[in-house]
Amino acid sequence: LAIVKNKPSVLETKGDQLETLKRLRECGPKSEIEGHLDVKDLAKQCKDRIRIVYGQPGAGKTTAMKHICQQVALSQIKSDFALILFFPLRDESVSKCTDLPSLLEYYGEGSSEDTTKMLEEGKGRDTLLIFDGADEARELLQEGSNSVLLKLLEGKLLPEASIILSSRPGVCPELQKYANQFYEVQG
């Protein structure tokens, strides 16, 4: 699995969309791109609160995100975070959430009250929230959406939490207003 630091181009007009998507798909051989990183590097805090992991279908985005959680849980990699939570946006119980308690219910009924209080009091400090599949819940990113994801990205909720979003390249232009760090999974 190769993950490289590689920010996609910003779209200037609607006419540029096709060209930009084409460039996102033509990343070139791995050896020509600097900035390779290991999955374990994503389990470390960095100056940017929000990071985007993108790639083509089947490249390994979901696998990489789950691998981070598994390796930290098994103490096989060291993390800078006290808490890492994984949320699949394709799951309706996650994508329909409008507040933190309902989002945390993904981990089971009754598990959210104490965790919500702890996260809100600490403003999400030392917490990594991983959202997988932003391309499958694109409507959550639209202005005026009442989604918990948008509230988190805008810093209205847990402003000190770190966030990793995985997505296919088509959503990257919409995500550029929230993040400066983009990493491409090349399989």
What is the gist of this entry?
The chain has 187 residues and is of the alpha/beta class.
Structure description:
- The chain is of the alpha/beta class.
- It has seven helices and seven strands, in the order βαββαβαααβαβαβ.
- It has helices at residues 17-25, 61-73, 92-95, 100-104, 112-121, 148-153, 172-175; strands at 3-5, 36-37, 50-54, 83-88, 127-132, 162-167, 181-185.
- A seven-stranded mixed sheet has the order 2-1-7-3-6-5-4.
- The protein is globular, with a radius of gyration of 16 Å.
- Mean pLDDT is 83; it is low at 11-17 and 19-33.
Write the layout of secondary structure elements.
Elements: E1 3-5, H1 17-25, E2 36-37, E3 50-54, H2 61-73, E4 83-88, H3 92-95, H4 100-104, H5 112-121, E5 127-132, H6 148-153, E6 162-167, H7 172-175, E7 181-185
Parallel strand pairs: 3-6, 3-7, 4-5, 5-6
Antiparallel strand pairs: 1-2, 1-7
Tell me the overall shape.
Answer: globular
Largest sheet: 7 strands, mixed
Q: Helix-strand pattern, N to C?
A: EHEEHEHHHEHEHE
Tell me the radius of gyration: 16 Å
Assembly state of the chains shown? single chain
Beta-strand portion reads 15-25%
Helices, by number, come to: 7
Cα distance spanning the termini:
5 Å
Spatial strand order of the main sheet: 2-1-7-3-6-5-4
The beta-strand count equals 7
**Which spans of ≥5 residues are poorly predicted at pLDDT below 50?**
11-17, 19-33
Structural class: alpha/beta
The helix fraction, in percent, is 25-40%
Mean residue pLDDT: 83
